[in-house]
Amino acid sequence: MSNYTIAVPWSGKDALSDSDPAKVISGSDFNTEFTTVQTAVNSKADVNGSATESFSATTATAGTDTTQVATTAFVKTAIDNSQAFPVGSVFISVVSTDPATLLGYGTWSAFAAGKMLVGLDSGDTDFDTVEETGGAKTHTLTESEMPAHTHNYAGGEYSGAYDYGTNMSVNNLGSATDGRTQNYDTETVGGGSAHNNMPPYIVTYMWKRTA
User: Fold this and answer.
1) How many angstroms separate the CA atoms of 96 and 119, rounded?
2) Between vectors from CA 205 to CA 199 and to CA 208, what angle results, nearest 5°?
3) pTM metric for this prediction
4) Which residues contact 82 (CB under 8 A, 6 or more apart)?
5) Among 19, 63, 126, 200, which lies 20 to 30 A Cα-Cα from 33?
């Protein structure tokens, strides 16, 4: 990119004598001058913008807040240092495109596949460490986890001497009148399978910025 400098010494012609041929302004003089102007203009940046136009400029220090020209290098550094998604941030999306492509900066890795996010709680040992994992999609109840309950036993006559009636509670079975203790098992129910332990959910892509 060059600056325009006058090519023909126009003002010097006034000092020449009328008989000096150089005092005459010729078409060649105009051609020389306008060619110089054209060269300078053509070397300037296109004010309408051009993807192929280039020029040199000093890249300002990151964080500079002046009217100085912002080079592409300055802008890239500013974006890379952006606090919108600093290193350690989690980006959630419903498209599979890497955030490095979507946002134009950062290094990202897929995060929390098949897991839900929970806010840190310093007062709960299950949730007091960032990126701590836990929980299960299914769970099989242990005996201590089952609600307290009883089962009814539909009894009947026993060898003609014991009539316990119907719907007799197993807890109420005791000694018979002749001193014998009667023990009964209720009918087995339930399958013991694990149950679904999932809350309502919606699936998304999650990414963590690592650099």
Assistant:
1) 24
2) 110
3) 0.51
4) 105
5) 19
pLDDT, residue 157, reads 47
- Asked if 22 and 11 count as a contact pair (C-beta separation under 8 A), the reply is no
Buried/exposed code over 110-144 (b: 16+ C-beta within 10 A; e: otherwise): ebeeeeeeeeeeeeeeeeeeeeeeeeeeeeeeeee
Contact yes or no for 195/140 (Cβ under 8 A) = yes
Structure tokens at 165: 């009636």
Query: What span, in angstroms and rounded, lies between the C-alpha atoms of 73 and 57?
Result: 10
Q: Which of 42, 39, 73 is nearest to 57 (CA)?
A: 73
Please report which residue ranges of 150-204 form alpha helices under DSSP H.
none
β strands within 50-115, DSSP E:
90-93, 108-110
Instruction: Dump pLDDT digits (tens) for 151-194.
Output: 776 655 444 444 444 444 444 444 445 555 566 667 778 888 99
